[in-house]
Amino acid sequence: MDGVRCSNTHTCLAGCSQVTELVLDNCRSSNGEIEGLNDSFKELQFLSMANVELTSLAKLPTLSKLRKLELSDNVISGGLEVLAERCPNLTYLNLSGNKIKDLGTVEALQNLKNLKSLDLFNCEITNLEDYRDSIFELLQQITYLDGFDQEDNEAPDSEDDDDEADEDDDDDENEAGPPGEYEEEDDEDDGASDLGEGEEEEEVGLSYLMKEEIQDEEDDDDYVEGGDEEEEAESVRGEKRKREPEDEGEEEED
Predict the structure, then answer these.
(1) pLDDT surpasses 90 at 141
(2) Distant-in-sequence, close-in-space partners of 140: CB < 8 Å, separation ≥ 6
(3) Is-contact 144 116, C-beta < 8 A?
(4) Which segments carry the region annotation Disordered (predicted)?
(5) CATH code of 50's domain
(6) What gap in Å lies between CA 31 and CA 20, rounded to an integer?
(7) Residues contacting residue 154 through CB under 8 Å, at least 6 positions apart
(8) To 10 degrees, the CA torsion angle through 68, 23, 62, 12?
(9) In-domain check, residue 191
C-alpha cells in the first residue's frame, strides 16, 4: 500500500508499515496535537497535515524516512526542534500559514541538514526587514525559500513536469490513433495496389500480344501480296518476250 487518505486523525493506522504517503488534510487534531500516528509507519516518505488545527508537534512519531512534510494552515508557533529529532531526513518543509513570528523560532531548523526547500508563506516572519536574506543566512543548507532561490529562480516542480509529459503522451496517442489501425489500412492499400498492378500488367500483356499477332498477320499479307505482284510482273515480261519474236516474224512475212 503506497498512499492513504484518512478522514479522522484519531483513526489508528497501526500495521500500515508499507505506507509511503499519508494525507490527513482538513481533519481535526486532538487538542491541537497529532493523534493516530505512531512509529509503525517506518516507510513513510510523504506526510500532509494541512489545516488540521495543529498547535504542537510534540506527539509526532519518529519517521526516519520522511522526506516531505506539509504543515500549512495550522497554528504552530514553536517547538520545531522536534523535527530534527524525529524526521532527520526531511528535504521539504511547508510551514506556510502558521504563527511563526521570529528568526529564533526558525533557528531550530538548522539541525535539519538535508533540508533543501522551506515555505513560510503567510507567516508573520515574512514581514521582517531583509526576511529572505536573513533566512538564507540562518539556514545555509536550504536552496529554496517560498519557492525561489537566492537569485529569484523558481524551484522546479517535478509533479507539474510529470503531468505535462503525460498530457503530451496522451496527445501523441490521440493524434496517432489506436495502435494497428493504420497498419491494417496500409496492408489493405498495399493489397489493393498490388492487385491493381497485377490487373494492369495482365491487360497490357494481352493487348501487347494481340497487337503482335495483328502485326504478324499484316506482315504476312504484305509479303504475300508482294510475291504475287512480282510473279505477275514476271509473267507479263515472259509474255512480252514471247510476243516480240512473234511480232518480228509477222513483220518479215509482210
Answers:
(1) yes
(2) none
(3) yes
(4) 148-254
(5) 3.80.10.10
(6) 26
(7) 147, 148
(8) -170
(9) no
Q: pLDDT over 90 for what percent of the chain?
A: 48
How many folded domains does the chain comprise?
A: 1
CB atoms within 10 A of CB 47: 23
Q: Taking the CB of residue 51, how many other CB atoms lie within 10 A of it?
A: 17
The torsion angles phi and psi of 229, rounded to 5 degrees, stand at -65, -40
Dihedral pair phi/psi, residue 105, rounded to 5°: -70, -40
User: Residue 204 falls within a domain, yes or no?
Assistant: no
Residue type, 98: N
Spatial separation of the C-alpha atoms in residues 45 and 49, rounded to whole Å? 13
Alpha helices in 73-180 (DSSP H): 81-86, 103-106, 131-138, 158-176
CA distance linking residue 25 with residue 75, whole number of Å: 14
pTM: 0.60
Start-to-end CA span in the chain (Å): 145
**Weakest mean pLDDT among 80-94, 171-185, 232-246:** 171-185
Flag whether pLDDT at 118 surpasses 90: yes
209 in any annotated domain? no
Q: How far, CA to CA in Å, does 170 sit from each of 59, 162, 174, 175? A: 44, 12, 6, 9
In a domain? residue 72: yes
CB burial string 173-193: b at 16+ within 10 A, e below = eeeeeeeeeeeeeeeeeeeee
- The sheet with strand 21-23 has its strands ordered as 3-5, 21-23, 46-48, 68-70, 92-94, 117-119, 144-145
| 3-class DSSP assignment, residue 122 | coil
